[in-house]
Amino acid sequence: MTVTAEPAVGKEAPPGATAPAPRRRTGRVRRIALPYLLLLPALLLELLVHLVPMVIGIVMSFKELTQFYIRDWGAAPWAGLDNYSLSVDFDAPIGKALLHSFFVTCAFTVLSVGLCWLLGTTAAVYMQENFRGRGFLRAVFLVPYALPVYAAVITWAFMFQRDNGLVNHVLHDQLGLTDSPSFWLIGDNSFIALLVVSVWKGWPFAFLIVMAGLQNIPKELYEAASIDGAGMLQQLRRITLPSLRPVNQVLVLVLFLWTFNDFNTPYVLFGKAAPEAADLISIHIYQSSFVTWNFGTGSAMSVLLLLFLLVVTGVYLALTSRGRKAADV
After folding, report:
1. In this protein, which residues make up the domain named ABC transmembrane type-1 (predicted)?
2. Range of the domain at 252
3. Which of 290, 295, 123 is nearest to 206 (CA)?
4. Is residue 5 part of a domain?
5. Which one of 29, 71, 171, 312 is least enclosed by Cβ atoms within 10 Å?
């Protein structure tokens, strides 16, 4: 017996299968728009935290903003490009000091990034082998990165003290490597002290990133290389480093930007007035703005620093992308 279902009273069957199309289109629009709606609060906060102060700083760089206009900085007279010309006049004291700070920062950044990458990569490669206590060592290596910056740097500041510091106690009293206790926080040694603290604080990040990148390299490649007679150095050169190229490109860029803009480390280590040998450009701009109360000149220096970092980042990305395409071909 066959039962035929009758259509509902008052409803007509759709003439074709194209009726649900508008509903499907609406659902597709919602699926596409949902991620952007979820990102909208973070985007607004990002603009509020970064973009708005950036625009205000650029406007301030064109004003003659000194301590006389702190209460109403909008009333400060326009200076045009005077702040910029003063900053790049390397024959004048302000421009000469800024150029010296720029060279110190470049040397500090190159050494710090290079040592952080070298130590992090070396430790990550050795930590790939299975041995007892490997997990404990990995956790210990990440302690400098996990510590708050102020607590870590202030501890190093006490260790670098001349009379009761641990560094002089080890180098002079125990090992006898120096004739007398050294001054580490003033003079030329301040650059070495700053570099040591920066490398100690930054290499665990390189270790963490490289160690994560090594997890994606198939172990079969190393096994095949061992069968072919390749040693550890050959495996490192032929397998590890080429496979880590995308990771290292991002890692070096991030370390460069962090180190070049580092303000917390020299400020906590030396205070408001850093020694001439360790006068990084971040602390130099701070002194030009908040110590001499010349916010217009300090803002101009900040804008010049921003432009320099944008140019270096753009050139670096262009070169690395070109090298990646050449390697793929």
Report:
1. 102-316
2. 92-280
3. 123
4. no
5. 71
